[in-house]
């Protein structure tokens, strides 16, 4: 299955730690197509995506805040302007109605995984 991974991270968390956390939730038959997050984490998204050999995509807080997610965080809302980053980014990038892996947090890293849907040419912004 082709998937996209939404990520969020506390300040100071590096790409290697995020890749490690991602690897704990991926299934063997999944192929990661992209890493997605909020635009203020663009450099981190680029580093993670580059280390995994995939594309990176970012969204504004406004774009992320339009997505209905299973998990919301007032702390994240106050910090970045969206109540969800990893889940919302995964759903947006995958053009998916549901998550394959809901929010999973470990050591300052949050990840969520959604299947990639290319219906209506919206998933991962039409494969960039």
TrEMBL record:
<dbReference type="Pfam" id="PF01890">
    <property type="entry name" value="CbiG_C"/>
</dbReference>
<dbReference type="InterPro" id="IPR002750">
    <property type="entry name" value="CobE/GbiG_C"/>
</dbReference>
<dbReference type="InterPro" id="IPR036518">
    <property type="entry name" value="CobE/GbiG_C_sf"/>
</dbReference>
<feature type="domain" description="CobE/GbiG C-terminal">
    <location>
        <begin position="3"/>
        <end position="114"/>
    </location>
</feature>
<dbReference type="InterPro" id="IPR052553">
    <property type="entry name" value="CbiG_hydrolase"/>
</dbReference>
<protein>
    <submittedName>
        <fullName>Cobalamin biosynthesis protein</fullName>
    </submittedName>
</protein>
